[in-house]
Fold each of these.
Amino acid sequence: MILKDLGEFNLINRLSKRVRLSAGVVKGIGDDAAVLRYKRDRHLLLTTDMLIEGRHFLRSSGGYLIGKKAMSVNVSDIAAMGGRPLAAVISLGAPPSLGVGFIDALYKGIREVAEKFKIDLVGGDTVRSEKIIINVALTGEVKKGNLVLRNGASPGDVIFVTGSIGGSLSGRHLSFTPRVKEALFLAENYRVHSMIDVSDGLIADLGHILRDSRVGGVIYERAIPLSRHAKDFNSAVMDGEDFELVFTVPGRDADKLLKAWPFKTRLSRIGEICPCPRRLYLVAKNKEIQKIKPKGYAHF
Amino acid sequence: MILKDLGEFNLINRLSKRVRLSAGVVKGIGDDAAVLRYKRDRHLLLTTDMLIEGRHFLRSSGGYLIGKKAMSVNVSDIAAMGGRPLAAVISLGAPPSLGVGFIDALYKGIREVAEKFKIDLVGGDTVRSEKIIINVALTGEVKKGNLVLRNGASPGDVIFVTGSIGGSLSGRHLSFTPRVKEALFLAENYRVHSMIDVSDGLIADLGHILRDSRVGGVIYERAIPLSRHAKDFNSAVMDGEDFELVFTVPGRDADKLLKAWPFKTRLSRIGEICPCPRRLYLVAKNKEIQKIKPKGYAHF
């Protein structure tokens, strides 16, 4: 058997299922970030993402946007836990023929995100490689009461999504703003039962929430906020890298949240959690109900 | 200008010099691991290393040894700070055609090092790539009193090295044991003024200590413990990936340390720190004194 037959999620499961964890771990493999014991009132978060030229970016996009993306995808993971980022270490693989101007632009993109979110850049590694490779590992912290996992969605919850969905390939995947302040507002002020960032695609990532929470859901085509860059509904909800937040709150808090939402970033109520484990239903614009499979982007 | 002209160390400096750090950082870029504020009596450590097929390992070495190495190089960095490892996140790039057996062996190597050093494997990322790429980011902790940096070497210090040096390419670079217990013993019981692990080469890494401590040193050819796999003296002290510890302690403690050393791992007194900034002298076997340049392996 080769990797392609195994699939990305089985690949990850294969590592995690034989792992024993110490009492220092609150949540290991299987959420947007790992959660570790830290201080009396807060947990430490740890996440990592690897970007490879040709898969996550093209060299022609320029160092600046690539550096921004490498940082932002990790910041988005910390946000999705209800936390704030702290410190990053960065591994860079690059060919010796790469122009120093490209590297300077890359570092400028990295530093800009770091400054915006008050992240300390504290170390790294540089390696010669044919393709440009950037791996960022980012720590963060979350107040214990603010921690939001994927597995707490509950029947009666309303499903929300921030911003708009789809068309990220037209450029937004390189220049999005991680939803840190929105997530902090939510975690501080609402009983957010579950949250995830949209990296694999809206349907796939909502699927992670449903699977881990052992519930099902209904979403409404008319309610899903499509980006003006989205090609069509199907590709919008299947494509990845929107880096918006999908989350659920108890139904009775939904209206209050919509009313109180203080940000320019859009907030959309797109559906509800139901007690039908793992099932996801889409109510199409013509009112037809479709059963859909939570699939999205997978590397293998 | 291209990367090759800039050189690896200038590449790292280029990022670090424009970075502003918060009060949460005890030591940023420029040591074996970053040091962050953590608990009342201890600091958090954070390090990362990226291994790429063809540069750090060959696929023919098999997944098991490659997995071990990917973990061990990071553990060695934590050890060189006087700390112990805590939790790791792992990014894996691999071609879809790679056999699942290879991946299982890789994970076995990773898990074995994790279990030996009680490291929690808490997350990661998987990406499709042509070459196999493994990035590990590892946290650790160090008692405040045990923290050892590169910059504390002082005239009159004696320079020590653990184990033997050279010939790592014959296989040891894939199967070495990080010197965690040795480093903990040293940090707990001795005034270790400076410490580093030998990744770039004995001369180069001692050079990092001299530069950061603004001192010089003398080492003795006859005192340097060559591995039986070493080709010759020059390549042994210039080649990298020995992953032994080089450290300095006050001269008056040197004999006591040699006497008390409780490990099977060899401990060698190889020289002394002198007050001549950045100069490194080698006393050859024929008593001739040579001035040498701290050079070693650089990726660019």
Note: Chain A touches chain B through 79 residues (CB under 8 Å).
Amino acid sequence: MKIRRQNQTVFFKNEPKIIGHYSIVGPKEGKGNLRKYFSEINKDDDLFGQKTYEKAERVMIERALDGAIKDSNLKYDDIRLVMAGDLLNQIISSSYAARSFDIPYVGVFGACSTMVEALALSACLVDGGHFDTIACATSSHFSTAERQFRFPLELGNQRPPTSQWTVTGAGSDIVSIKGSGPKILCATFGKVTDYGINDVNNMGAAMAPAAMNTLVTHFKDTNTSPKDYDLILTGDLGKLGSEILIDLMEDKGYKLGLNYKDCGQIIFKRNQDVLMGGSGCGCSATVFNSIIMKKLLSGEYKKVLFMATGALLSTTSSQQGDTVPGIAHAVVVEGVKNE
Amino acid sequence: MKIRRQNQTVFFKNEPKIIGHYSIVGPKEGKGNLRKYFSEINKDDDLFGQKTYEKAERVMIERALDGAIKDSNLKYDDIRLVMAGDLLNQIISSSYAARSFDIPYVGVFGACSTMVEALALSACLVDGGHFDTIACATSSHFSTAERQFRFPLELGNQRPPTSQWTVTGAGSDIVSIKGSGPKILCATFGKVTDYGINDVNNMGAAMAPAAMNTLVTHFKDTNTSPKDYDLILTGDLGKLGSEILIDLMEDKGYKLGLNYKDCGQIIFKRNQDVLMGGSGCGCSATVFNSIIMKKLLSGEYKKVLFMATGALLSTTSSQQGDTVPGIAHAVVVEGVKNE
């Protein structure tokens, strides 16, 4: 099979596979809906034994990378590249975590779309024969995100009803040409989309148009429709953003049904006071690398369209009156076939 | 020729080429050593007609991308992907610039190594057949970097003698499998290296060990030595960092001679009061995309080893007492052969 390229979607001919994965979360996530599925839960300490939340986030990425490499039954030497990114300024969680590994490193940034950006790029690099095996990772931490993007935690600010709760967690995947595991069939790279939202407490609304844009493009490029997937999973649109996406898709002639889910809506329980749901790079990273990977590995899911969305703002852009552009990247992952 | 992979270096079999380039700089750079070579100089206005320096930096990236696409004689539709990154928090210069182009976008971050990180990744993606043509870009602005990483400009702080001057400029390259131009032969992806420097006003010293690490690896992987290159060009080590690199390389048995240059040392004139020289993503991006590309296109340079270095810190990591890890990525670019 030749590599076919159709507009924004890249198809892989050499079957890049996810041969290892890991998810690590904090106490609140460990009490949520997916508590049975995470690889590791720190039940008591969202500082992970560190003095600052930033160092805690770094530890989560380190453990996620470490855990995924172990899960793949490989040694550090077998990993040719670490590709990671996160929400903190200058992606320090990723870069400092990469310092602990004697492996070449490239930093990527797509805000909360980073997990899929890394999976998509890694699949290209592995498929193209440039790297055998790549470790992808991303993270977020409620307390680092709050104080960097919003207010000091100590202020105890009231949260607006459209706000989401940044997931404290990290996820990692080992993408390889060798070994066995769910295959990455294709990737759709998204465009920056801006519908003019400037409410930084309504990220779901800012990201939904980008999600629609990439999703419609994906269906057209691959000549598929929502019913062709066991699961269509968005990253962290949350309750409001998901509803907007469903509406926008309906306007475009696509009906998202019961096979559509959003990581931000399923990670926490209804009574956990998270308003519109979970968010952050760690949201899609930990949901995908827990229950979704489990069901891909068991063959329960045969075909999952995993699309993470990112809001490409900073505090500076908001302070200068800029609206919030969004982006969404998607990969199609095929479950393991049981003979 | 099969793709050979040797440790950290990736060789390209399908001859990815740089088929278009552009550099844009501000007034100070426009009075420097390379004033004859830049594609565009804004002589009077480092705000580029904008209300804030951050918006000015964004305009530079937009113009660099636009100029490089025009230089390649392609249309926007021919560009399959924009890959960009910069120093600002959440790489807003790149993401907001990408909003102006109706082209898929991936953000990357390697601090001041970003230009080479983007070139190396793009060469992989183009070589692997996943994208025909990719536009890479990066930028920095003295005034956005100063107020984000150091002090408000209005304070008029004295600059320590080891400090460097962030270049106001942006550069862009079009990497393609089609067309003609200097070829990217191989890329060496660097590891995060930390020698324990914690002086944020001495980036050259923090980055030199990473430069040494990647350079030694590159020579070993490719079985070459410094004399095999017409030019070995580092990104922005500056005067002190370059001297440290020369010493570190000598300890490893490699003598860097007259064919070794640093972008930070050549961009400004001696009397421009820039202490250790230029720095920032825009430093290597504008030097490479002016005089170096000119000499690669004319065939004066036959083989250039272009290695940009990045300091992977943030103000938060510094405030929390972390040392400054560095990284360096390298590409080998072959000049156009004149029959």
Note: The longest strand of chain A covers residues 17-25.
